[in-house]
Amino acid sequence: MAISVVGVMETPVAGSWEEHMLNGWKNFTTAKDVNLMRRPMSDFMDQRKKGDVIITVDFESIAVLCAAKSSKGCGLDFSSYPYQPVGGCSQVEEDVGDWNGFPKSTCCQNALIVLSYGLAHQALQNPSRAIFINQHLWNDCSGPFTQQPNVSAHHCGFDGFYYGNGLCAALQLPIFDKYMRDQCSLFASSSFDQACESCTSAISNATDSLLSDLKADRRNITEKANCLVAVIVFVIAKKLNIGSSATDDFSRCLPALALPIPETEDYIKIKSGLAEAFLAIVLAMIGLTAVISLIKYVAKNRKKEKKPLKIKDIANSCSGLYRFSKAEIDSAINYGPEKKCLGRGSAGRVYKGMLPSGQIVAIKQIYKSNTSDSFTREIEGLSRVRHSNLVCLFGYCVEDGEQYLVYEYCSNGNLAQRLLRKDTVLTWELRVKILRDCAYALKYLHNHEDGCIVHRDIKLTNILLTHNMDPKLSDFGLAKMLGMEESKVYTDVRGTIGYMDPEYMSNAKLTSASDIYSFGIVILQLLSGQRVIDLDLDARDQLTRKAKDVNMMKRPISDFQDQRMKGNVITVDFESILQIAVLCVANSSTGRPTIELVYGELDKAYKNIQAEKKTRKEKGLLVETSPDVIHG
């Protein structure tokens, strides 16, 4: 919501209005509270300037502006394209010498686009001035972005983009009309690929023409980078000046400037070709050796783990579990007129059963053909853990070659079934509660007193719902405990495609971050309402790519909200949860948050929901409905 502040202009105001507000007002937190109407507008106004100025302020934009600027006073306006963090940026270190047309990492590509928008804004204010700003001002813009301290102009090698540092760094906007016309204005009338190809080709050609006309030294990598950035700033300024709606498409297109390094000389081709062939052979040999070693290591460990299953050993290690007889299992499964199958998986089939006491239970019959050790893992895993958000294992049966596990019964099925029901819709409150409680269970597992327990198969179908809609993590058939001194182990790759950590899939290195990735996919599913079962990698990537685009404000947030919730969400919390989910699904485990950070964000969102409910109830605005569902 925008708030307008209107006064009477009596005396001129020195400096730009952004500088005045940044110097006279409170910090970013106050701005955000005022914008959300949690504090009065007067808390954010400069009380010394009453009646001196006429200012209309969109506080959301000012909050973004305050967050983007450094404490030294960068002076650039980032409100039209604020910085949005992306995953995988924990160790950013680039130089313009690494470019081949554009920064090589997504992190620095994102940072350059944001800074280019800031330069375009200041150039539009006075087109007769140079596009680049003075060195001391640019140095103030080189600090880390508030939301992601590991990313900055300095870390990305942008230190040389200041006025006077080369020929292109002294040019003004009007000069570029000669080099760029309307080649980047086709996004609204052509397909994205065609428009992007036309635009990037024009930018590259304009940069080359500039270098030629200025007789610049093409070996000077800073000069080439300055000319490219100057052309990009000109295109952005032109779009901002005419109010173009295609700026997001242009921003998404820019990374296409980063092209493979061309080979120009024949003798270089021969030498580099031989070198590449030799390197490929060496790498293949190393890779083959590593694979063979890994297979031997895994096979050796599996032999150690795959000892004959002895009932006495299970009874000794799992004294808290009841050992059912085969007759008791048969009686429980056949309590009704016919068997009721609740579901089936790779390890076995699950039936609904009733104990002599009348208690309803879930009974999993392990397939005889199952060669995995899921039965042993389930018993060993669930017998040592007790948590309100983990499914409870009551007992087991091993008799006549048959294997059964007896669990508590969760009457509302699994989360995948519930999410796609057409007669009911999960409310925003319930979705946040389910996510928070699941994160709470993972926090317990990852910090278990005996060592970190990695579930390895977090997905919608493994989250069960009780009659009160309380979530329970289930299926510990793939769970793996890391020793107290271990942060990772190398093991056979198991899990569900679509939820599996790509890093774990590629190198078989299992860490707690693998669960974080899977849980990130679950969060994205609940936010979007998209069910991901039997998901191929392309469909998974589409989901994560869409989430990242929305998080970076390249697409509206409504594109990612489950439309069945009809907008009944707290937008600020939705954005916060989306941001943490995007970090969870970073390709590199080093860019993912810990489960403590994930739980903290979800818990904060849930508390905000409860606080809003209390406020609405006190004002008589709360309509009592089912706490679990919105009826469709």
Report on the architecture of this protein.
This protein is an alpha+beta fold and 632 residues long. It has five domains: 1-68, no CATH class; 86-257, no CATH class; 267-306; 311-408, 2-Layer Sandwich (Phosphorylase Kinase, domain 1); 415-631, Transferase(Phosphotransferase), domain 1, CATH 1.10.510. Helix content is 42%, strand content 10%. The protein is built from 19 helices and 16 strands. The chain has helices at 17-24, 28-35, 59-68, 106-125, 135-140, 192-213, 221-241, 247-253, 266-305, 311-317, 326-333, 374-383, 415-419, 428-446, 502-507, 512-528, 537-551, 571-584, 595-618, and strands at 144-145, 148-152, 322-323, 341-344, 348-354, 360-366, 393-399, 402-408, 424-426, 453-454, 463-465, 471-473, 480-481, 489-490, 509-510, 629-631. The chain has a six-stranded mixed sheet, sandwiched between helices. Strands 1-2 form a two-stranded antiparallel sheet. A two-stranded antiparallel sheet has the order 9-16. Helix 2 runs antiparallel to helix 3 (59-68), helix 4 crosses helix 7 (221-241) and helix 16 runs antiparallel to helix 18 (571-584). The protein is elongated, with a radius of gyration of 30 Å. The two termini are 29 Å apart. Mean pLDDT is 77; it is low at 1-30, 32-36, 48-72 and 261-270.
Question: Strand order within the widest sheet?
Answer: 3-7-8-6-5-4
CATH superfamily of the largest domain: Transferase(Phosphotransferase) domain 1
Discrete helix count: 19
Unreliable segments of 5+ consecutive residues: 1-30, 32-36, 48-72, 261-270
Total E-strand runs? 16
